[in-house]
């Protein structure tokens, strides 16, 4: 007779099996988190889908009862702590309720290492509108919706060894500004031959993102040549950005105050499907060249005497993977002495790939007179544009050696490289050796006791007074602490005023440099710290020093103009006018001080 186990034992067994299942899945975490479970119809809801391992084919739910107002925003974080790597990837959405009621945010799915993972459904209650919504946008929210890092890939389905470019662009909303960028996690481009195209300086350009006007900055440019067929992954690029976000506060000039937050943004991983090169029509001498090329074999001359040398060049030029294939070998008769080729390249890599030429340069020395043919050789490559193989044949070249000993043998064999030395006859074979070198003895010369000898001894002694004078002068300067501060601040003001002149035409950087120059001038002349600056204190100090009221007002007006112009349109003429005002007002105040 069978006994039925108690209910609590069955439940305990169920949870034990469930825990074993979670452990067997390798501690993979994929969950959904919401900012709140109850909100008003006029509030916003944030939902984050978080995973601790990278996955593919992320599929969000349909968000029934909500409208997506922003997202998905993707962020990636990787850290190494005590040699252990931690990884986190998040997809974030901001949702707006479309009606009151109770809703369920259903499951999102992700493919991690071939296994499908799902989040737990979340119940949300939407009530009537509230008087003071608790989801006012914070500085972090504004930064999230105003920054987007995008990896633009020129071709997501290239052939093996076909060039593709990846350009990383940071899109920035006009409502914010950025002050610094630092790289956190750089991709390694596994299974790609890669070359970085340096970005000389970061320059903002106008563009659009999701149909809205944005500025963007190109952060990184790469040229990749896939070295493996099938699905290849370009790892994500993650950067840290210091963002200046406007607040509701204003300064004493009436201008809006900005607050700074640090955000980590990621371009996300990109998948490239690399196609195999076609087998149909593939030449037997194909060595992996992919692109559009020209091929030729040339010699520096074709008529020469025995024991004279010439250069034979095997050259491929054009656009393609010039560094990733072998050049065909030159076929030469064995009666010619041939040295190992010298490889040369002249390649320029741009976003469209490698361009230029590569060559093998052979030194050839004929030992006997006669006519020696250099047979034609061929070079094959695959052109991704035409999707066909092409073969180029070089012309046959005949070398005419018109003077020298006759060859003992006339075997018509050839060689492809290395040094080949024939056994030669003839009584004048070594006539080029010079038997009388004509050496001349070198006259004796003694340095000791000469004028130069005594000058080198006296020079260090004469140098000692000069060193002591310089040392005393340096001590005097170092002891003048207050004077050093004034000189440093004055020098810094001149530096920033000069920097402002160089930035004419670039509004934000020009007015930043001009404002710093004015502040450092005051710091040098009035002996006050930057933290003590205020409009009232500047006016009081300048008037105490006897500066005219008109000049004081002009100086404070110029400071206010710098502050306002950084956040308002300004023309080239206006910038030149403000620069001249700064030069004039500093000169006038300096004379009165």
TrEMBL record:
Q: Which UniProt keywords apply?
A: Membrane, Signal, Transmembrane, Transmembrane helix
Instruction: Spell out the InterPro entries in the cross-references.
Output: BatD
Secretion signal span: 1-24
TM segment ranges: 453-471
Per the UniProt record, one Pfam family is: BatD
Q: What is this protein called?
A: Aerotolerance protein BatD
